[in-house]
Amino acid sequence: MLNVVAIMGRLVADPTLRQTQTGRKVASFRIACDRNRRDANGQSQADFIDVVCWEASAEFVCKYFQKGSLIAVEGRLQSRNYTDKTGNNRTAIEIVATNINFAGPKSTNSGNNNYENSYSAPASNGGYNAPRANTMEAAPSYSAGSADDFAVIEDNDDLPF
Question: What is the reported pTM?
Fold first, then answer.
């Protein structure tokens, strides 16, 4: 069986951090994900997806993300049944996140955050993945050379080895 979900969108509200009765930390938040099409009136359409994450990932999300942040989430789809306040049976479908990443540029108002924009959330073992330095160099320009820089290779249909 395969149950893998990858989604990217913006947080609808600040994530909320809670603790279970056993002391496990859990965060929940909702992501607005564009459908990449417009309705008959020209309005963008979006889906609103609920996400849950646990322990170190929950702390990570609550510390570094807020309403409007662009976020990438990888996890599994899960459904659960519950009874609401009026006694009606309900079903909730949500993503249980296993990997959370920044997906947009660093916010200018975050202050204490020294991250660039491509760092992973805590690994499933509870530790944080090491930040990756921005080491991308400019691509070399190949158009600067001339046709004389290349030599013709003689091919006699013999293998050179």
Answer: 0.63
